[in-house]
Amino acid sequence: MIEGPSGTPLFPKRWSEISTVTISYGHGISSSPLHLAAGYATIFNGGTKVTPTLLKQDTVVPGERVIEERHAIVLRDMVRQIVTRGTASFGEVEGYFVGGKTGTADKPKPRGGYYEDRVIATFASVFPTYDPKYVLIVTLDEPVETSGKEPRRTAGWTAVPVAAEIIRRTAPLLGVFPVIEPLPESAVTLVANE
Known about the structure:
Elements: H1 17-24, H2 33-44, H3 69-85, E1 99-108, E2 114-127, E3 134-141, H4 159-170
Antiparallel strand pairs: 1-2, 2-3
C-alpha cells in the first residue's frame, strides 16, 4: 500500500490473487469520497465518465463510455433496492427515490492492524433514482448509535440516517422536489356541485 494521505486512490503495488479476494469486501484498497462520488456519477450518468471540477462550465463535454447504459440502469435499480429492502432502509426519504450503498470498514490502526470497536461508516447515495440528479457521500469516522441495548456502528445505523436528513433538507434548495405518487383511480371520488 502507498503510505500517507494523498488525492489519489490507494491500491496494492502488486495486484495478487489474494488482493482480488480482500478488495472485493473492502480491504487493501482506499478511495477518497471525491473519487467515490465521481464513480457514482459515472454510473448514474448512464455509464459515461464524469470528471469532477470546481469550475462552472457552460457546456458539458460527455466523457468516454465506461459502462454500457443497460448495465447502468440495472445498477440504478439495485441501489434503489438497497434502500427499499436492504441495509439502507433508513435512507428512504418519501418522494425522493433515494438509492445507495452502505459500507462499514474496520478502522486501521496507525501502525498496522485494525481496531476491534472502531469503524469508518459510509453511505454513497444518488437521488432521485428514476432520473438521477445528485450524488451524496456521507462518511463518519468512529460513529456510534446508542438508542438500543447495544451500541451500533454500521453505516445503516449511522451514515444512512445522516444522508437522509441532508437529502430531506437540501433537495428542495437544489430544485428537486418530492414526487407524490398519484392515488389509484378507484380511490378518487367525484363530487358534483348541486
